[in-house]
Amino acid sequence: MTPLEIHLHRIRLAVEQISTATIEIYLEQLLLSSRANLRFRLGWPSGAVMEVSEALSLAGDSLEWLSYRYHFQSEAGTLRYDNAPHHPHLPTHPEHKHRNAEVIESWRPDLVDFLQEVRYFSTLW
Q1: Which residues of 19-50 are buried (b: 16+ CB within 10 A; e: fewer)?
Q2: DSSP string covering the chain, please?
Q3: Considering only CA atoms, which of 32, 19, 38, 89 is closest in space to residue 59?
Q4: Structure confidence at residue 1 (pLDDT)
Q5: CA-CA distance, 21 to 39, in Å (whole number)?
Q6: Vertex 80, ends 117 and 43: CA angle to 5°?
Q7: Which pTM does this prediction carry?
């Protein structure tokens, strides 16, 4: 398996373990042997949602994230990491984190780590 395939497989397994959510959308696209897109949306009976999108590229044996957005929203609040270039004042620009109305400097977390952060933030599973 290539590093891209390993990444996609690892994420698929982690998402499938979130038993309290409904997988509304789950799309993996291997565009080339060195390029992939991942997109999924999870929903909970409480109305909470998680939306994730990644565009990845393989450089040698390393993965590079061309773009990403990891978003969770519930009654507990909003948690999102992304690299949209709209907060140039942050030292980690374009990468940053939203927690409710606050925007702070942050690097992209591993996606499995984001799922764990959401788990503790929301207590939904």
Answers
A1: eebeeeeeebeeeeebebbbebbbebeeebeb
A2: --HHHHHHHHHHHHHHT-TTSEEEEEEEEEEETTEEEEEEEEE-TTS-EEEEEEEEEEETTEEEEEEEEEEEEETTEEEEEE--S--TTSTTTT-EEEETTEEEE-PPPPHHHHHHHHHHHH---
A3: 32
A4: 85
A5: 16
A6: 75
A7: 0.95
By the 8 A CB rule, do 78 and 98 touch?
Answer: yes
* Residues counted in the chain: 125
Side chain identity, residue 57: S
At residue 107, φ and ψ (nearest 5 deg) are -95, 165
pLDDT for the residue 102: 97
